Amino acid sequence: MKRVYNFSAGPAVLPEEVLKECANDMLDYQGSGMSVMEMSHRSKVFDNIIKTAESDLRKLLNIPDNYKVLFLQGGASQQFAAVPMNLMKNKKADYIVTGQWAKKAFEEGKRYGDCIAVASSADKTFSYIPDCKDLPIREDADYVYICENNTIYGTKFKELPNTKGKILVADQSSCFLSEPVDVSKYGLIFAGVQKNVGPAGMVIVIIREDLISEDTLPGTPTMLKYKTHADAESLYNTPNCWCIYVCGLVFKYLLNNGGLSEMKKRNEEKAKILYDYLDSSKLFLGTVEKESRSLMNAPFIVNPNVITDPARKEELEAKFVKEAKEAGLENLKGHRSVGGMRASIYNAMPKEGVIALVNFMKKFESENL
């Protein structure tokens, strides 16, 4: 069996040793005689799985004791509604719109209260992170919202915004566990796990305890109240047992491989290999301003200043994706909303995969320029 280099933005590549452990446990999890997918979420065996997963995640992120960890279904997009429903006490929130997912969260927030965009990078197709040192944050805003890493456009907040004392809410879906994070700077972090942590179907919420209450917007469904899940330790209803199990294995893998400081070092090394080539290439062009580049998602296009015919440019991009796939480099097509190409190089992408991509790009450039 030959595995490809999978550059998908999510569901995405997982550590091979984790996949092998999953395969080994598939029919019989540690002598239980059944798969994790078959066992009761109320069983002692699964209770150990979820408690160990939470404990390891707390170690990885050094999560303070006054924060709850919730393993929830619905994905990150469901949090676009859950956040305002739970946190909008004054029915006002300030959003920083730096990409499609922040924009969707902003639009969803407006359904529940007075939401404004205090900063945006839409003027340059979300190719940069705006200066957030002195934003017009409202005195009565309930929270300030960011999407910390933008999967589609490939930007990343290198410094957190000055929220002027307001609660910071961050969607970390595509940068979660890629580097150390000071959780205490946030009121709430959420992350869909399918990009950097596990299989699709779950979101992890890390929320400060004082933000959890019954005081939610009228009509908030029981299943969208953070208190429901915090009180039940993520077991109010049947959770995504298999996903929690796999995430737990990934947490162990990260702890055993130097933790988040080591992941950041590896991710910076991998990203440098790709960005250095893009900066030197004639045929390919990175689409993000250098100081805003993500370590996780790197979008690029055929340079329109070199290939000036739009039809030829589109033809070359399609050819690149096709030939890359044939070379064992999968899922390099850009998001349907922006086109071009995108390489997602999450924790589990080995450096060899990035080197293989760059070597292929060099070969493609020599043959098509």
Q: How would you describe the overall organization of this protein?
A:
By secondary structure, this protein is of the alpha/beta class. It folds into two domains: 16-256, Aspartate Aminotransferase, domain 2; 259-368, Aspartate Aminotransferase, domain 1, CATH 3.90.1150.10. The protein contains nine helices and 14 strands. It has helices spanning 16-25, 44-61, 75-87, 100-109, 226-231, 241-256, 259-280, 310-326, 351-368, and strands at 5-6, 67-72, 92-97, 114-120, 143-147, 149-150, 155-156, 167-171, 188-192, 203-208, 284-286, 297-302, 329-330, 341-344.
Number of helices: 9
The domain tally reads 2
Q: Report strand order across the widest sheet.
A: 2-10-9-8-5-3-4
Structural class: alpha/beta
Please, what is the average pLDDT?
96
Q: Which class of the largest domain in CATH terms?
A: Alpha Beta
Task: Using the 3D structure, state the CATH architecture of the largest domain.
Answer: 3-Layer(aba) Sandwich
Measured by DSSP, the beta-strand proportion falls in: 15-25%
